[in-house]
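Researcher: Let's do a round of design. I'm pasting the structure tokens now; please hold your answer until I've finished.
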């Protein structure tokens, strides 16, 4: 089973990347074939159409997502929506090659607002790609992270549950 973890915030010091690195480390302890795509790195090109040439990081990220059986997708909430950088990344993905994959969603906000709305939007995106989505997303607020570390034990436990439950969902017979 191949796993990809996507941190969907373009900000260099993103709390989303702290959350998603925790998911990555835990998922990698369960499955060594786990890769991390961090949109904070700024290496993913803007989508300009199917006939364009894109950089190595963009091409590799597209391949990693397409090849993975399980996706962990994390996003901050920006203006009641998931990040445009995350939407841009999915412009590169061919929906004809993703049917039957499984996704777990992690959402970070500055306060307890809008989680379910953004989860619904992300689930709709996953549905477009014919990806089965774990119905239990993990939610965190920025106050649960301090100095680049998750300080809320319940949040850390929920991230681990998200990984375990999503991998279990993916391993069931189709």
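Researcher: That's everything. Go ahead.
Model: Designed sequence:
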């Amino acid at each position: 089973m191949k796993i990809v973890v996507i941190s969907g915030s373009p900000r260099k010091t993103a709390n989303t990347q702290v959350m998603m690195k925790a998911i990555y480390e835990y998922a990698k302890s369960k499955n060594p074939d786990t890769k991390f795509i961090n949109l904070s790195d700024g290496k993913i090109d803007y989508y300009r159409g199917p006939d364009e040439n894109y950089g190595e990081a963009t091409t590799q990220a597209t391949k990693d997502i397409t090849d993975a059986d399980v996706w962990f997708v994390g996003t901050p909430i920006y203006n009641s929506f998931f990040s445009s950088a995350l939407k841009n990344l999915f412009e590169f993905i061919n929906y004809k090659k993703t049917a039957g994959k499984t996704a777990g969603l992690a959402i970070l906000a500055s306060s307890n607002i809008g989680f379910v709305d953004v989860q619904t939007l992300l689930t709709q995106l996953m549905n477009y790609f014919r990806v089965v989505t774990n119905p239990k997303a993990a939610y965190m607020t920025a106050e649960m992270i301090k100095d680049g570390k998750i300080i809320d034990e319940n949040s850390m436990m929920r991230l681990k549950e998200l990984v375990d439950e999503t991998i279990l969902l993916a391993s069931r017979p189709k």
